[in-house]
Amino acid sequence: MSVRVLVFDSGIGGLSVFGPLRAALPAADFVYVADDAAFPYGAWEEWALVEHVVRLMERLIAMHRPDIVVIACNTASTLVLPPLRERFTVPFVGTVPAVKPAAERSRSRLASVLATPGTVKRDYTHALIATHGGDCAFTLVGSARLAAIAEAKLSGEVLDEAAIAAEIAPCFVAHDGRRTDTVALACTHYPFLLAEFEKLAPWPVTFIDPAPAIARRAVQVLAEKGPAAPGGVAGGGTGLAVFTSGRAPSASLARTLAGFGLAIAAPDAPPGFDKTAANL
Ligand code: DGL
Fold this sequence. Notes:
By secondary structure, the protein is α/β, with parallel strands linked by helices. Helices cover 42% and strands 17% of the residues. The chain has 2 domains: 4-95 and 212-278, Rossmann fold (3-Layer(aba) Sandwich); 99-209, Rossmann fold. It is globular and about 60 Å long. Bound molecules: D-glutamic acid (DGL). D-glutamic acid binds at residues 9-11, 13, 39-42, 73-75, 116, 119, 147, 187-189.
C-alpha cells in the first residue's frame, strides 16, 4: 500500500514544496489542498486562523486518511502546528522561516526574511531569530501583495514589475559599509517569483528556498513511522488537487497543475470541500 501525503496551503504556493516532495516520494499518493476560499492567510487574525485551519483539517484528515500532512505555508505553520499536533495523531511537517540557514550563509551579517504580514508578526518568528539568528541582524519584511501576485503569475496574468520591486525593496539594507546578502523566502508562494526577484533586486543576494529541506524532513518523518511508510523508488503515485472554493482553476493554472502531475478534483464536489468549514 502506498503512502498518502496531504500537502496544504492557502493557495498554490505550496506547490513549491510539493515539487521536491513528489520527487522524493515518487510512489506516494498526494492530495494537494489549496484553501483558496480563505486566501490570503497573511491578513487573518491569529485566533480565527487557528480555529479555521483546525476545523478544516478535521474534515480533510477524515476524508483522505493521510499518513503525513505537510503544512506548506509559513503563515499557518508559525501558528497552528501546536494545536494541530495536540488534536490529531497523524504527523505534521511544517514550513517555517529559514532563519538558521540564512544566518549560516550570510557573510555581511545582514539578512532579511521576506514573508506575509502574519508571519512577520508571529512570536514564533521572533523566537526563531533570537534562537538561531546569532550575530546576524535580520530585517523582517511582511508583504501584503506578493502572495496574490504569485497566484496571478501562475494564472497567466501579466505582472506589475514596479509593484514587485516596491514589495521587495525593504529587504535590501545598506549600513556601515555592509549590505544585505541573504533573503529567506518565508512564504511558499515566493519561489514562483524568484526570477522577478533576481531581476528586480537592487543588488545580487542569495534567496533561500526551504522546500528541499522540508521534503527531506517529510521523508525522515515517514521513515520514523515504520518500514511500510517510505514512498518507494518507483513512480506511479497519484496526485489530486483540491480547491476549497470549488472554483475551477484558470486554464493556465490547470496546465501548471497538470505539469505537477495533479488532476483537479471535480469543482462540484471536490473531496474535502465543505463550504461551511472553508468559509469560517
Ligand atoms: N503560502 C503562504 C505562506 O507560506 C501564505 C500566503 C497567504 O497569505 O495566504 O505563508
